[in-house]
């Protein structure tokens, strides 16, 4: 897949499967999960059936979207950066193609809506870095 061919199907809202909190064993949701889980190629057909049944049984632990991620109460991410350390505040961003921008902005909006990230006022920004989009290895 070329970088300018980043899928944008995540932009379609399919609330029929995003029921982890209201109906975690919804058949449509279970079907989506068992289809998207990657299974080892070394499994026998019988083992594959058993593993898929196990995935279906524990479907409530899978998040089908960022909005289904359940935050851990009291969890805080901290970086151990020595006092007085300075970082670059200028970004030397390589231009992104329109599909890349659509993908990136869509993911940022999705994480904002899910409460995974939040807006930071400019005066609190201590470091900036360019964004690199890379395809997953699997």
Written account of the structure:
This protein has about 140 residues and is an all-alpha fold. It has three helices and no strands. It is elongated.
Keywords:
138 residues, mainly alpha, 3 helices, 29% helix
Helix-strand layout with pairing:
Elements: H1 27-36, H2 45-57, H3 98-114
- Beta-strand share of residues: under 5%
Main sheet summary: none
Rg of Cα set: 19 Å
Report how far apart the termini are: 13 Å
Query: Ranges with pLDDT <50 over ≥5 residues?
Result: none
Quick synopsis:
By secondary structure, this protein is an all-alpha fold. The chain is built from 3 helices and no strands. The two termini are about 15 Å apart.
């Amino acid at each position: 897949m070329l970088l300018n061919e980043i899928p944008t199907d995540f932009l379609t809202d399919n609330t029929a499967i995003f029921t982890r909190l209201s109906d975690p064993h919804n058949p449509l949701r279970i079907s989506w999960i068992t289809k998207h889980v990657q299974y080892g190629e070394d499994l026998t057909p019988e083992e594959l059936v058993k593993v898929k049944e196990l995935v279906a049984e524990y479907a409530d632990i899978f998040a089908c979207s960022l909005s289904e991620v359940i935050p851990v109460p009291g969890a805080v991410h901290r970086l151990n950066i020595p006092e007085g350390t300075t970082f670059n505040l200028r970004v030397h961003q390589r231009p992104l193609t329109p599909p890349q921008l659509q993908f990136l902005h869509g993911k940022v909006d999705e994480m904002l809506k899910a409460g995974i990230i939040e807006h930071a006022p400019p005066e609190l920004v201590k470091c900036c870095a360019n964004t690199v989009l890379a395809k997953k290895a699997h």
